[in-house]
Amino acid sequence: MFRTRLLSGIVLVVVLVATVGLGGNVLFAVLGIISLIGLSELYKVVGVHNKVLGLAGYLAVVAYYGLLFAGHMEYMTMLSILYLVLLMAVYVFTFPAFKAEQVMTVFFGLFYVAVMLSYVYQTRELTDGGTVVWLIFLSSWGCDTCAYCVGVLIGKHKMAPKLSPKKSVEGGIGGVAGAALLGIIFALAMNQWGGASASPTHYGVICGVGGMISQVGDLAASAVKRNHEIKDYGKLIPGHGGILDRFDSVIFTAPVIYYLATLLAGNI
Q1: Quick one: which of 170, 75, 157, 58 has its CA closest to 114?
Q2: Contact at 8 Å (CB) between 168 and 153?
Q3: What are 188-218's pLDDT values in tens digits?
Q4: Integer Cα distance of 153 and 156 in angstroms
């Protein structure tokens, strides 16, 4: 099991480095595909994956990415309203095929999966995006790794005992501190060998905040799984589960990094 998890993790990192490094249309296309896969995992949980309600959700994701690609995000509010109207039309004209909870999950899925993940691409497209985008993964996966190590060593107080018994307050604090430290080290490394002029302080703050938010994303994904009594969202990534299992923290971290980077534009 450990070997499978390690090998699939290495493959995932290689793909990540290649796609995020290239950016542009390659990253855009990969994120679009990942969003659709992640959405299908969520829809399978609530039983609408291969039904007309789920199809409406997939179409909304395609429409959203179309707006993003064309640079017409000013129409996002209109898309959201039309999407809700479409879902309610499906709900009432097929009644009682679907429950209200399923309709709300389908609507929620567009934003939870597709919109949130698209901020990886949007961050990459910033002026300093080639450097800043890596803070998304440093703060989310770095925090997770540091939290695990600190939790194993000194963790005593449970963070969310009913939701995730193995997570500790000490681990959570260690994860945030570790993410901040990784941000500082990354800034220093990019300044030394990448010709950048990054602020270690700002990078540390961004990764620290990202680390805090990433834990919310991790626990939120766990809460949904507990409510539906499943272990993993899928089996796409051997040893890791599905897209939502591996990117649960990234989903929450990406928008935070984007807006922090935008706020500190020219100063990071």
Answers
A1: 58
A2: no
A3: 999 998 888 888 999 999 999 999 999 999 9
A4: 9
